[in-house]
Specification:
Distance between the termini: 55 Å
Oligomer: single chain
Largest sheet: 5 strands, mixed
Strand content: 5-15%
CATH topology of the largest domain: Nucleotidyltransferase, domain 5
Number of helices: 12
Number of domains: 2
Number of strands: 11
Radius of gyration: 26 Å
Length: about 325
């Protein structure tokens, strides 16, 4: 049933898109609802289901377009209508977006915290606590590689290949669920314990982009080493840590709980001394060690960075209140 309704939604979406692109014509709900009788007469699969449920699917598409045009006129991010029912392997997922859901503010705590995201630890807090990074993808790499090899040995379009593909997909789904569960657990703890959570404004897509190729000026057609091998490992570690997932979950939980999440500039947070403010690349002596070359202050490097992040967030909040 879900598959047939998805087909109906997609077909109606495509009809609207084609009509507008080819003739500048806007199709409305009434136009598409009137076609249901003919669709049901010609398609036995669609005829199996309730007429009113199919009308509801078309109304949902109509509301999506109405919201799209409303946001476009207001100068916001339009968000073109798309499918909100999906299938992964043998599982179906319905994605619900709710408007007007009342927030449930948590009681104030009077506390604020800075959060430094990393690959050794998922998060290091300005109070010294650390949230470990279980590296779910790395831990499952052996099993996933074996499942991939098993899939490659199966005959194309065979029943055994479909089963092997399902096993591989299930392995990746498990990794995603583990990463999402850690993000929810960590974010919930931060939101419950703090009124203000300060994080770095990270361009994760840019950080995990492939290194730019460097042509060899002395040998056209060949390229100089660009560090891509090392960057590939770092990219994999960043994605395995799930920074993007964590930040998305953190923002959603903060909004629901009436908490504030502030993003600050990530530049120099790992090189600035939290005690005296001196900035120098030499302050970061090792991955975990920080020693200020100006005042001699020593700390765990990630904790020092988290303290800087918190300070920047508090300053930003103070400026906003003063304005």
């Amino acid at each position: 049933m879900l598959n047939d309704h998805r087909d109906l939604y997609n077909s109606a979406l495509q009809e609207r898109r084609d009509a507008y692109q080819m003739g500048g014509v806007s199709i409305r709900y009434g136009d598409q609802s009137a076609q249901l009788t003919d669709i049901r007469a010609d398609d036995a699969d669609q005829a199996r289901w309730s007429f009113s449920s199919q009308q509801a699917t078309l109304r949902r598409l109509d509301r999506s377009f109405a919201g799209f045009f409303r946001r476009a006129r207001a100068g916001g991010k339009p968000g073109y209508p798309r499918v909100s029912v999906k299938r992964e392997g043998e599982r179906w997922y319905v994605l619900l977006s709710c408007d007007g859901v009342p927030a449930r503010p948590l009681p104030p705590t009077g506390r604020a915290v800075g959060v430094d995201l990393g690959v050794v630890s998922l998060a290091t807090l300005s109070d010294g606590r650390q949230v470990g990074n279980p590296r779910f993808l790395a831990r499952a790499a052996g099993q996933l590689a074996a499942a991939q090899r098993d899939l490659a040995r199966k005959k194309p379009r065979s029943r055994r290949r479909r089963k092997a593909a399902a096993r591989l997909a299930a392995g990746h789904r498990k990794v995603r669920r583990q990463r999402l569960d850690l993000a929810h657990t960590t974010a919930l703890t931060l939101i419950r314990d703090h009124d203000l959570v300060v994080v770095e404004a990270l361009n994760i897509a840019g950080m995990t982009r492939r290194a730019r190729a460097v042509p060899d000026p002395e040998d056209p057609g060949r390229y100089l080493p660009n560090g891509q091998s090392a960057k590939t490992g770092l990219n994999r570690s960043i994605l395995d840590a799930g920074w993007g997932v964590f930040l998305t979950v953190l923002g959603a939980k903060a909004e629901s709980a009436g908490r504030t999440v502030v993003e600050v500039d990530a530049r120099h947070t790992s090189q600035r001394c939290a005690a005296c403010g001196h900035v120098a690349p030499g302050n970061r002596v090792t991955q975990a060690g920080f020693r200020c070359t100006a005042c001699g202050h020593t700390a765990h490097a990630d904790v020092n960075a988290a303290v800087n992040i918190l300070g920047a967030g508090l300053a930003r909040q103070a400026d906003a209140q003063a304005a």
